[in-house]
Specification:
- There is one protein chain.
- By secondary structure, the protein is an alpha+beta fold.
- Helix content is about 35%, strand content about 30%.
- The chain is built from five helices and eight strands, in the order E-E-H-H-E-E-E-H-E-H-E-E-H.
- Strands 1-2-3-4-5-6-8-7 form an eight-stranded mixed sheet, sandwiched between helices.
- Helix 3 links the parallel strand 5 and strand 6.
- The longest helix is centred in the C-terminal third of the chain and has 19 residues.
- It starts with 9 loop residues before the first strand and ends with a helix.
């Protein structure tokens, strides 16, 4: 089970996932400034004010073996373009969540998310032998909900009043998952989408 907690690097089609480090601070801020993503209240994208806490929290979760945070790299330009994470890791139950995902605006709708999800899901199901991978998002984050559904995940339910936001309002969280038996079909779909996007760019 130790392999669940090992730091890894994954790559495909010019996109690379590497472990988050404190040294990535400025590059992450630069990526987040592409579209001023911190202004999107339904996501948790770091700003200049929150970046230190964002990184320290992620690394602390990694230290207690609950999270494996990554930065997303465009290998053609060697530029950090976003972040994602294995989180809420439950080794004993062979489950984990993929979350805290965001990309610089100029890389949204470019196929990068599909590649990242394929890499993470493939590692979870084929290397870690996970029995389920979960996704969670804010009820009002319609773009995220649609993107998760397109991956092939199914909605499990809604956790109402799940979190208290910083402004005191309540967050309803939508929970999705892909289970082990669904992975072969989901993988086929993701590979098809990646190939289709690659041909479109050619």
């Amino acid at each position: 089970m130790e392999k669940w907690l090992q730091k890894i690097e994954l790559e495909l089609n010019g996109v690379q996932l590497i472990p988050l480090k404190k040294e990535h601070k400025e590059d992450l801020l630069k990526a987040a400034s592409d579209g001023e993503l911190w202004n999107l209240w339904v996501t948790s994208v770091p700003s200049k004010e929150s970046i230190n806490n964002y990184i320290s929290t992620a690394l602390e979760q990694q230290k207690i073996k609950k999270s494996l945070p990554f930065v997303v790299v465009d290998m053609k330009t060697n530029t950090i373009i976003g972040a994602t994470r294995f989180c809420n890791i439950e080794v004993e139950n062979k489950r984990l969540e993929i979350g805290y995902t965001w990309y610089a605006k100029s890389y949204q709708r470019t196929g990068v998310n599909t590649i990242c999800k394929l890499l993470l899901l493939q590692h979870a199901f084929e290397e870690l032998d996970a029995i389920a991978v979960e996704f969670r998002t804010n009820w009002f984050n319609y773009a995220s909900r649609n993107a998760i559904t397109r991956l092939g995940a199914k909605q499990d339910g809604v956790l109402r009043n799940h979190r208290i936001n910083t402004d005191g309002s309540y967050r309803d969280t939508v929970v999705f998952s892909i289970i082990q038996s669904e992975w072969p079909t989901v993988k086929k779909s993701l590979l098809f989408e990646i190939e289709k996007h690659t041909k479109k760019k050619a």
